[in-house]
Amino acid sequence: MVDARPRWRKKRYVVGALAVLLVTFAFANNTQLFTAAGPEGPKLLAHRGVAQTFSTEGVANDTCTAERIDPPVHGYLENTVPSMRAAFDAGADLVELDVHPTRDGQFAVFHDWELDCRTDGTGTTRDLTMAELKALDIGHGYTADGGRTFPFRGRGVGLMPSLDEVLAAFPREPLLIHVKSDDPAEGAALAERLSALDASRLENIAVYGGDAPVRVVRERLPQIRTMSKGIMVDCLLQYEAVGWTGAVPAACANTELHIPESYAPWLWAWPSEFVSRMESAGSRVVLVAGSGGFSEGFDTPESLTRIPAGFTGYVWTNRIAEVAPLISR
Q1: For residue 52, what are the contacts with CB-CB under 8 A and spacing of at least 6?
Q2: Of 17, 92, 111, 268, which is most buried by a Cβ count within 10 Å?
Q3: Closest CA to 254 of 291, 217, 290
Q4: Rounded distance, CA 198 to CA 91, Å?
């Protein structure tokens, strides 16, 4: 029997059937409905080691956070070797640290660009040698009561480490190095320093920060995981275009992806298969709290309930000592 339907109607039927097949394929390839959560829980990224915490409400880039710390519950100061060691001992799988170049060509591990907030010095890290920075008291400016008392004053002399000291203290532990500027020369200097490490050590080091310095590190040390805003945008835009097929764009290979909690559900195959896909491309996925604003972390028991079931990537926390015991491994 001859099909008497008009050709346009048959064509519309074929197009509709293909559309249904594509939608079905995309759904089946990315749904988590049939994925059972495994025994492995999330891993933990300790921001600046074990640190003094503070409210992030109203914090801007020029806010002196040492002047608004919470009442101290421990004696550690951020970005120091003791604080990093305490973080690993508490259960951190990865520790983040900040670096700045010094006048004599080294890298100081310190958060702020300027010294006036936390220390008894003035100027910037770039103004001083590493020896001069070590003579400063990095606990000088911390106060939890508006300046009436300074619980760490006098206790931080000699505690600002160089990057070399951190690498020597933690020869195998995973480290995430934050470049605090957008200076490509800083990226070149950091790449030169890290190039002296052997291949097995570089596997456990990642670098993130401004587009310009990170681009230089990525070009000179392509085996290191890297992240900048530009790398993130490039990777995720391409992934949103093709991720429904299960493919991972080349732009996402060997990266450090810090995914804001508010954006994560829009990613294809989030959470477990997304993490698996990125890990297969040599990349690490870190979930940060909220919209990814000023160092937002999963820092309370309530916040941990928002970590999606089946997520096996890394979780950013500012309170590693309190959070680690609450995470099922």
Answers
A1: 66, 69, 70, 72, 76, 77, 78, 142, 152
A2: 92
A3: 217
A4: 26
191-201 residue pLDDT tens: 999 999 999 99
Classify each residue of 183-194 as buried b or exposed e, where b means 16 or more C-beta atoms within 10 Å of its C-beta. bbebbebbbebb
Under the banding of pLDDT at 50, 70 and 90, the label for residue 25 is very low
Give the DSSP per-residue string, 55-77.
--TT--TT--GGGGBPPPSS---
Block residue for tokens 């990093």: 84
Sign of CA dihedral 92, 314, 81, 193: positive
Smallest Cα–Cα separation from 87: which of 102, 99, 97? 97
Contact 197, 223 (CB under 8 A): no
Whether 175 contacts 197, CB under 8 Å: no
Whole-Å CA distances, 288 to 1, 52, 59: 63, 19, 17
pLDDT at 149: 98
* Predicted confidence band of residue 22 (pLDDT cuts 50, 70, 90): very low
More confident residue, 30 or 252: 252
Q: Could you give the angle at which helices 184-194 and 211-220 cross, rounded to 10 degrees?
A: 30
Is pTM beyond 0.85 here? yes
| Chain centroid to CA 261 | 13
Residue 179 scores a pLDDT above 60: yes
For the chain, give every domain's residue range. 228-329
